[in-house]
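User: Fold this; tokens only.

Assistant: Input:
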Amino acid sequence: MKRVKFKLEPGATAPIKATDGSVGYDLFVYGSHCIYPGRNAVRTGLSIQLPDGFEATVRPRSGCSLKGIPDEYNMRHNADSLFGTIDTDYRGEIKMIVNNHEEEPFFLSDGQRIAQLVISPVFTGEVEMVDNLDDTERGEGGFNSTGL
């Protein structure tokens, strides 16, 4: 059986699945953070050990994507968390990337949930370089080529 191992810094909140049907583990802010305009790295106090053939992706929580990220007073801000990939051989702390689109900073408090961690299998086979690819009905169509 493949097993994922989590390690927490003292006082950090363990990631949780909010419901039995949740795909991702909610990630929590570790400590308080001033979120300046632009991109910010927010600590989780969490490190991970993934089995071979897996990766973890830090993703925005859907509510934060729709409504903005709440500050320490639960006021929503024009900010979002960005995707990030955790590789199998990484053992450092997982951080959430928060992009503040406003001109003023705001604060996040310890224990806030603003992102989630999804663990998935990934292709680890060999890659072959070829001159041509097999044809498909879709072909090279992209960006709305199949309709809205």
